[in-house]
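Teaching soon. Invent one.


***
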Amino acid sequence: MKKLLFVLAIFGMLATTTTYAQNKALNKALKKELSQKKKDFKKRGFQIFGTSRSLDVALLRYYEALEEGGDAVFEWVGYATGKSKGLLVTAAENNARARYATLAQSQIKGQIKQKMQANSADVSEEEIDKFEAVYLTKVEAELKGLLKPSFSIIKTDEKTGVSDLETYYVVDETAAGKARLAAAKRALEEANIKSEAGDIISSAAEEKVIPE
């Protein structure tokens, strides 16, 4: 019994040592990534915007959120340009939603084609085209309020007064998936696609969108 307890204790120590080493390596890699991101922002002339916290703190919280979320979250960026700084954050969110909707539409096109061929579903190209067009706008609409900004950075051309702003988001994939599915159901109704074909398309909308 004592021998067994001794062996278990050794395995426990080894597991603890391995976990510590892995965490240490991960923290080192994250620190390096954070440092590189900060250098990139500085090189491009950007600085933190809309908060009293430093860029270091903003980046630290951002990477912590990404690390804690793992595969359940993904990073996304919205871009905006203009002279009115007060409007840029909203414009960046609109851009982020539009870009994500375009990506979701692009990926679902290929998935629908594959699934339709595999299941020999009876639906016309005109119906599919209408669905895809409506789906784009519905995804963008469903994302409203879903994207929570992590931080924003900005740079301003002193000669023209024009500013470029980038807003970074940590997006929950489950919530994004629900938004895509809701958008697909609304688009199916407008395109008048029902029964088996509608089920196939809905399943395609649930497929994870891979950020480019």
In short: The first strand starts at residue 47 and ends at 49. The chain has a mean pLDDT of 86.
